[in-house]
Amino acid sequence: MISELQAVNQMLAAQGLSPINSLEGKLSKDATTAKNMLDQVRRQVGMEIWSWNVDPNYTLSKNELGEVPYPSNLVRFSVPHAGYIQMVNGRLYDRANKTYIFKSAVTGEAHFVLEWSDQPPEAQNYVATRAARVAYEQFLGTDETRQQLFIEEQTALRQMEQRDAEVARYNMLDESTLPHFHGSSILPGYSRKHQF
Predict the structure, then answer these.
(1) How far apart are CA 177 and CA 185, in angstroms?
(2) Does position 33 have pLDDT exceeding 60, yes or no?
(3) What pLDDT score was predicted for residue 59?
(4) Of 10, 48, 50, 153, which has fewest CB within 10 angstroms of its CB?
(5) H helix or E strand, kind and range, residue 109
(6) Which strands form 54-60's sheet, in the order they lie side by side?
(7) Strand 54-60 to 106-112 pairing
């Protein structure tokens, strides 16, 4: 695990700046900029779908008004066979019936942008190395150090992708249309009578 403080110090070190001892209290301009940039990169990476930030079976409960609020870090919520349910101003909206009122809780696939401490170590490492490279480019330009930071970022990305693949256990047979794209008229799970 990499702490948020360690990530900020990694960014500062990449720029040749002095480390800080804490993220509490009043921070220097450089530390504040680094922390803000780290948050920005964390959100950018979190907007991508990974096994660690998606819950395929997440239930949102309704409140006493019959509305279904959702947490602020939820960025996408899709309900199978209910494409008209949208996220609007902190609560779900039923476009088909033009209402915020639901009869029951709603279950669907939830995609979250996780806080720093909720991310797996591989994601933390990738966000920290990517943020260090981005900060270096923004303030110092491009040179051999930037190239080294980019290589470190790519290594961290591969580690995170490997961890994601191990956890999610992706399988090409999960994609029902893949054989059709490659010229087959048979989809997995279908008999020959269901050919296109």
Answers:
(1) 10
(2) yes
(3) 97
(4) 48
(5) strand 106-112
(6) 54-60, 106-112, 74-78
(7) antiparallel
Cβ neighbours, 10 Å, residue 83: 10
Residue 60's CB is within 10 A of a number of other CB atoms, namely 20
Distance CA 85, CA 54 (A): 18
Domain ranges of the chain: 4-47+120-172, 52-112
Burial class (CB in 10 A: 0-12, 13-18, 19+), 166: exposed
How far is CA 8 from each of CA 21, 53, 129, 194, rounded to the nearest angstrom? 10, 22, 10, 56
Which of 31-35, 46-50, 136-140, 192-196 is predicted with the least confidence, judged by mean pLDDT? 192-196
- Tokens in use for 65? 């008004």
